[in-house]
Fold this protein.
Amino acid sequence: MRLERRDGERIDRSRAVSFTFAGWRITGFEGDTIATAAFAAGKRVFSRSFKYHRPRGLLCCSGHCPNCQMTVDGVPNVRVCTEPIREGAVVEGQNVRWSLDFDFMSLTDKIGGPFTPVGFYYRTFIRPRAAWPLYEKFLRSAAGLGALDPHAGHTRRYDTEHRRARVLVVGGGAAGRAAALEAAQAGPGVVLVDEDPRNRDLALPGVEVLAPARALGIWEGGLVPVDADTVLYRFRAERIVVATGATEQPLVFPGNDLVGVMLPDGVRRLIGDYSIRPGERAVVLGSDDETLAIADELMDVGVEVEKVVDLRDVRPRELSAQGGKGRVRRLVLNGERYGCDLLVASGGRQPAYSLLAQAGARVEFDDSLGVFVPTELPDGVEAVGSVTGAGLPRIAPEPAYEGKGKCFVCVCEDVTTKDMKRAIGEGFDSIELAKRYTTTTMGPCQGKLCHLSSIRVYAEETRMFESAIGTTTARPPWAPVELGLLAGRELTPTRRGSIHWRHQEAGATIQWAGPWKRPYAYGEHPEDEVRAVHESLGVIDVSTLGKLLVEGREAVQLLERLYPSRFGDMKPGRIRYGVLTSDGGRIMDDGTIARLADDLFYVTTTSTGADAVTAWFQWWNAVWAYDAEIVNVTGALAAVNLAGPRAREALGRLVEDPDDVSAEDFKYLDAHELVVAGVPTLALRIGFVGELGYELHFPSPAGEHLWDALVGEGARPFGLEPQRVLRLEKGHVIVGQDTDSESNLYSAGMSWLPKLDKDDFVGKFALEHFVQREEKEQLVGFTMEEDVVPAEGAQIVVDGMPVGRVTSARHSEAVGQVIGLAWVPGERSEPGTRVEIQVDRLRRGARITDGAFFDPSGARMRS
Amino acid sequence: MNFLSPSRCASGTLASPLARSLGRVGWSSYLGEPEQVRDLSLEGVVEVRGNASAVSPGAGEELVTLSPRRAFLFTGGDPAEVVARVRGQGALAYDATGALAGIAIANERVLRRLTDLDLDSIPTAGPFARVSAVFRRGTDGWFHVYVQQELGHYVAEAVLDALAGLEQTTWR
Amino acid sequence: MALSEIFFPKRMWRPRPELKRRYEVVIVGGGSHGLATAYYLAKRHGITDVAILEKSYVGSGASGRNTTIIRSNYRTPEGAAFYGESVRLYEGLSDKLDFNLMFSQHGHLTLAHSDRAMITMQERAEVNRLLGIRSSVIDPPRIAELCPELDLSQRPAYPVVGALYHPPGGIIRHDAVVWGFARAADSRGVEIHPNTEVTGFARSGDRIVSVETSRGRVECGQVVSATAGWSSLVGRLVGIRLPITTHILQAFVTEPVKPFLDVVLVSSQLHVYVSQTDRGEFLIGAEIEPYTTYKSTGTLSFLEYSAAHTLELLPQLERAKVLRTWTGLCDLSPDYSPILGKTEIDNFHVSTGWGTYGFKAAPIVGVTLAELVASGRTPDLIAPFAMERFHTDTLVSELAAAAVSH
Ligand SMILES: Cc1cc2nc3c(=O)[nH]c(=O)nc-3n(C[C@H](O)[C@H](O)[C@H](O)COP(=O)(O)OP(=O)(O)OC[C@H]3O[C@@H](n4cnc5c(N)ncnc54)[C@H](O)[C@@H]3O)c2cc1C
Ligand code: FES
């Protein structure tokens, strides 16, 4: 089959490469593709079709059509006509039961025809309902092409690279090259991409050529992703020149999918690039000079040309290809038979306008050419060459020819002209409906080979003009692209505080907490950490807290308008708890506000809230135009909470003068600047965990140093889990866990917080409304009657219906009971009320409580 | 606001969190030859707010203005003193040394793998490895990229990973 | 009997060259909701003097673009009861419509990647169980039994820690639902008018008297708007304001492969969900775009993020190829629950606020709106979803349930 060595061939005959193809050992040459080597070795069947399992052979040889999709080294749906040959590759057929040459499922083709018209699955398998899962299993296994390897993991490295270009030319044909060269005259920054591997070594002066590389689309802001196998180049160009040419269209006639029916371009590649004689006896069918010219080229390489049919001259009554075992044997034209094993047929060329359409161009039918052409290109996008329709011959063949056998409009999806007609007859009489019902154009080639034919067949059947029908929407990408390439490298922004490694070294279990990684606990027994805080001393890394400085002449005004609380009356050096509410009066975030000076405040937020709160503050500040600056210093500062009865004593040893932290000089809710272990620190005396405690905020590069110093003083590190228990014992709410997007200050039991007599503040309107009504739900504490811990999310049940939910629940050693927080109906929120909670299918009793479970007077944290 | 200034900490108390975390992911191997990346985290930075145009950078300093009311002043001096100086010039200033992790990167393609920023627009702010960053060029032509300190470790890993990818990519 | 149609094809619905002068009920929007409402009006209430006015072709809106997830494991008791009823209707619908909707109930897994997410799962499971909906929280070993393909290792940035398992959840063929309802409505005498855009309404006080269309004016008894993403525009034509914002939602399919994944996987942490259709394609979607728009242009970043997140769950899909992407409009209400039923205009009823989750509600919307139109009374099941709730502040918040809520 291989011809004598020829000029311009792309194979290196000195280097043999072997691989297995459907079990056969095949040897080709370096430069071959898998398909060309197999073809040269006599292989003709490459796949089985989607629905009828008909044998399919090479058709386009350009990586567009579905016919050569095979599984290569476990990767399904590889178009082997463009896949370079590789030593030792294992290439297998797919969607076959048995073998490529003999496929049981092809029975659907032979006898199933009448039972499986288009859309048959909507009409069948309806009853009995119980049998549907079985039918479905069968339908499912019949669909789909290749199979994925369930055990495959990440096997390739994919990267993304952002590029800029002055001019990006897509398409390396004559028009694209000319455009690139011309652009290069004006200066550097010209890039040309082309999907054809044959352009790998294309050299154009002043132009960077990327090939094989495929522009996938023109997306937001003129972004053009280019698929270069394992690198995705994301191009932004000042000018995009689309020179994607025109795609050869299969001719629609009965038997047009038989093995041996090929498009002229495919045949030219086999001959010109791979020196393969594509057949012995050929028939040529076409309606343009370019197609018909292939007859001479075939004869040059010794193919006998049996018949050339110029469809401009002949108007056949009957035109069909017939074969045996799925291979073409003859052309039948008006009763005459012409024997052949190669039938080169073309229905003309359709501009490959997809990129332009996606970029926003309009597509309209050009009556004089008989094809769809792009118009009204968006700014910055140009089209050159045959993608514009320029130079294309008029589409002359009939939309479809009559004859015996299945006549395919869409080879990917096995849609025949009969299917199209039937669909229209059934009332799917808009092109979009017909497309959806028949699935024409929805196959792996994305309609590149059937969009035009579908519309032409549709137009003929409905007696409409193509121009009135219009196109179906172009849906990117231009060609199928691997998920791995789109995904690129895995990048998950992860926040870690400056003390992170100390926790890791201490063996802490690290967990996600919003965007942060945080210690959950330092050992198997979080309750020991709880006990340490109650009885002695603990320290927790709270660097994740959001931290903002608000400074300026009108800082007070800004804060008073953002929070329902008052701050103007605070003395410098004092702290107040604050809750942010949304316009709708819902709870958004909470934290502490320390006044450091008349015009300077230090605000903390929840660990997940820093960015949102900063943006919220800035947005409102921009609206109100206060003289105040908001500076996010979250990462600048490490923060730890030193808590426990021994906290004062331990801190006293690390500051210059222990009196600085005495009960008189450093009171509950005071904020002082201290130097702790040589580190300038902002110390806040607050009590989230319910014991005497100091929250120390200091430069993050000193994180480990200060942490070590505190641990050196006997503080036991504690993690998130013990902290959750400790705060629950105090009845302290975690915003986002105990509250949700609908909770407000009244329903969450913080009615003391809003100062409705203040001037306007965010959410005031809603709070004024809430204060007058009965809340449907209330957040309350509860204790369980038995020692069972309900799941967080467990339901409060009345008469078998869910009426409330548990948001937090833990066993507390200090309280000696299971305690928790829950939302309950307003009428059941009185302390002492008994409610029932569903725990593992059983109802368990619980009592509503009031406020804190542990040290309700707060004596310990104020001590 | 001394509590914002690493330079006010006693000697021996400071460590660059970035360098610390990079010890674990092979930073040192890239500090050899050819040198590819460098840690800038302990170099002085001051965040300027308010009237940024009132600020005049001193010798060896660079002012990167992000908006009329926000700028970063990169300084070789003691940032705490620079804060005082800038405040004297009529703007607000905060020691941001601890707030930013900084990495110097030699290879432009590492940048292109992690940001779609127009590199000619540097100095500026923009995305880097899916987080916000501030970019400037060092006197040696290297790219200096600054991100929030708490993201430093993540970004450094992304940079090293991009370097590994460039070494591996044979295509072109 | 559908089988005979295999051999003797019949028209699915009749061409309707003319609009009548008046209809008792005019339904704006030929999507699943409009068609279902017409079907149940005819079937259950004998009201057949009904016109469906559709500006394009039936199913051209979100009904023909969605990712077809059907489930009822909602967070609020009101939502769970409502969607539960819808799933029950769907289960019998192929039979009722004599059209195979290919409802494939292989189970639905909502993955949790954090203990905070587990709380939400637990809550949903508890609410669901109390309402008789099969739903439970399961641990990784059980997940592995149901979906051995899922990467349950510690490799992903956000390892899976558990899941909410909902056995009746699954996917359906969206076009089949649209066509099945259309055919059944048509056969009972309902008129379906494609390419008929509603351009205005004439009112007399608090009543609509006639509807302006691109094909002329029709008088009407009652009007139902089932226009999803276009609802606020139609509301404006009537002269009412709906608390709806319209966003786009994108989705894509891969090339088909042999059966690989049975269950539907949803991860709100990763903002992605994956199923495999009966055709073999992986159907993948994400969260709505945060900006409001009616312009259906997709973005590359959607593809990139969704691909990355899919591979976090199913690394085997690394070399599966994206075949096509598309966008659809989503009508979002403030509490992520629908707005259903009466409005301040006496004879104008709406079905809107469907966000990314309305397809599964089509049958129950049809049943309840038909009842409302026929009887003038709001059925109990949809009373909580009345538009009034935004005035009385009695929201039905599904917001907290999941960021990705199909
Ligand atoms: C990508 C995507 C994925 C989704 N995934 C799911 C999912 O997995 N599960 C789920 O349950 N839901 C999902 N949804 C949501 C679901 O698709 C919709 O909520 C549902 O289809 C709405 O149905 P509908 O009939 O109300 O609206 P539509 O189907 O949108 O129908 C509205 C119709 O009104 C027509 N119309 C509009 N204005 C006019 C006018 N002035 N005159 C005449 N006609 C007009 C439109 O042309 C359209 O056909 C998804 C949505 C999208 C976009
Ligand atoms: S031929 Fe490929 S989609 Fe129809």
Observations:
- Residues 610-624 of chain A form the longest helix (15 residues).
- Residues 249-347 of chain A form a domain with the FAD/NAD(P)-binding domain fold (CATH 3.50.50.60).
- The two ends of chain A are 97 Å apart (CA to CA).
- The longest strand of chain A covers residues 159-170.
